[in-house]
Amino acid sequence: MTVLRGRARLVGDDVNTDSIISSTRKRESLDPAVLRQFLFEHVDPAFAASVQPGDILVAGKNFGCGSAMEVAVTTVLGAGIPAVMARSFSRTYYRNAINNGLLPLVCDTGAIREGDILSSDSTGAIRNERSGETLSPEPLPPIMLAILRAGGLVPYMRQNGDFKL
Amino acid sequence: MAGRTISEKILARKSGQDARAGDLVVCEVDCALGTDGSVPMALDYFRAMGGENVRDAARLVFALDHYVPPTSPQTIELHRVMRDFAERFGVTLHEAGEGIGHQLIVETGRALPGGLVVGADSHAVTYGALNCFATGIGSSDLAAIMLCGRIWLRVPDSIRVVLTGQLPRGVYAKDIALALAGVLGADGAAYQALEFAGPGVTTLTLEDRLVLSNLAVEMGAKTGIFPADVETVAYLQGRAGQAFEPVAADPDARYSRTVEIALDTLTPQIALPHLVDQVVALEDAAGTPVQMVYLGTCTGGRLRDFHQALAVLEAGGGVAPGVQLVVTPASREVRDAMTADGTLEALVGFGATVVEPGCGSCCGTCGVIPGDGVAVISTANRNFKGRMGNAKASIYLASPAACAAAATRGVVTDPRKVSR
């Protein structure tokens, strides 16, 4: 897995996929390069413009609840965000994240503050450079790791043509 | 070793492995639904995966339901792309106006007891009412199923929801589901299955069970599954295209938790804006003004829902001034039945705006959008801010009868207290 280093961008509990990207937007385009300018538009209209590549989303519980729409993952990736940390995810968001190569990290995010610099090491542990605290996200089962390592389900299926446990 | 839950048994059957909660298995999919909200992206993934041929077109169903009618060149193009693909590979496609994909999967007997049915839409959980393992997936998962016919799944823990007694007059399946959401919370069943059980199950019609399974995902559940009984078999009579083998839980199956709901103690419930687990007794919200009433969706858009709503509208003397009543049948079959028995004419007589069968206003992609500051009471399953296409509106969720009661008075009203 690639080693991460980025700013924490805090969003709260129960952030639904329509908050991430409004489903009315995907009527016009499915292109992440277009949709990224509307990321979290109803939550914080300034958010999209403030994203820097490498930023890490840090959420509370139940991130990505609601619709299973995959643009809620591809738009996040399109903004240059490689990982989402949350106390828990909705299962469709979690699947979609793995299938698109967005790293979903389940851990206790309660002590992370907006703007903290978070960095991962090769073991997958996440260090908060401000507080010195280290978090160890739940390990991923082999098939999910294999899909993530391939770069998502598209390259995985190109390589394997089927699922291999 | 402990016995198995319904989910463990179905996923064992479909994977050919000893599937126990927590295991990861690769399963054969009996049927996969995609909609105009998810298929266009799935086709991009399918091509990027190198897909040239669909593995088994007979197991795929496309439904044009999210953009009905299409109102822009972009959405018309999405429909065209889906039609072309479906025609080329022989995939069944339900045209715009035929109805909500989930309702069509159920009506056409594609969700069968003991089966594994997935849909690229979160409310695919609805078919769990028919004793199949039914869950929502994304567009990329759908593309992989097109390619290889299979999916990986983590076998979920199950929460046993024991229903006892019988619903009192004026209390409905939606009230059970909202009460359960209030108990479990919006993520209380995350990654888990809800398995309904107990003597109360036999008192629920299949339409009731569809409501409960549909709302399972609002508690984070992977599926909301019922046992099969005479009601299940009776519904599938003349619909099921093939033989099926129901699955029952073992008496010693292991559950992560048991929740008991005594149906006879329930009262009308309401979910307040903007989360489905913000549930209170409806009487505690009585008097809250509403300007729009929405009857429809894959939760509350079936024939009996409209019958229940109409009865309250008639008892209450019609729609109050200043209230907009919007009606969207879940499918053409539902609308035809409403036409045949006079329900539709009566609703139009009360001033209802009737929208083409489909997802309508529920997800904000088409249909009637609420104005700024408008309070909507709806038979739908979600009340997130922005859900119906306007983040400045507020959405309340309640039973069809409670929605109709609000329509008669212009304020949240207990349906048991409505009379002329």
UniProtKB/TrEMBL annotation, chain A:
* Keywords carried by this UniProt record: Isomerase, Lyase
SUPFAM superfamilies linked: LeuD/IlvD-like (SSF52016)
Provide the Aconitase A/isopropylmalate dehydratase small subunit swivel domain boundaries: 42-107
- One Gene Ontology MF term: isomerase activity
Gene3D superfamilies assigned: Aconitase, domain 4
Q: Which organism is it from?
A: Bradyrhizobium septentrionale
Give the family, as the similarity comment puts it.
Answer: Belongs to the LeuD family. LeuD type 2 subfamily.
The answer on whether this UniProt entry bears the keyword Signal reads no
Give the highest taxon in the source lineage: Bacteria
Name under which the protein is recorded: Alpha-IPM isomerase
UniProtKB/TrEMBL annotation, chain B:
Domain Aconitase/3-isopropylmalate dehydratase large subunit alpha/beta/alpha, which positions? 9-410
The EC designation for this entry is 4.2.1.33
The protein's superkingdom reads: Bacteria
Q: Which UniProt keywords apply?
A: 4Fe-4S, Iron, Iron-sulfur, Lyase, Metal-binding
Cite the GO molecular-function annotations of the record: 3-isopropylmalate dehydratase activity; 4 iron, 4 sulfur cluster binding; metal ion binding
User: Could you provide one GO biological process annotation from this protein's UniProt record?
Assistant: L-leucine biosynthetic process
Q: How does it assemble?
A: Heterodimer of LeuC and LeuD.
Q: What is this protein called?
A: 3-isopropylmalate dehydratase large subunit
Q: Which organism is it from?
A: Bradyrhizobium septentrionale
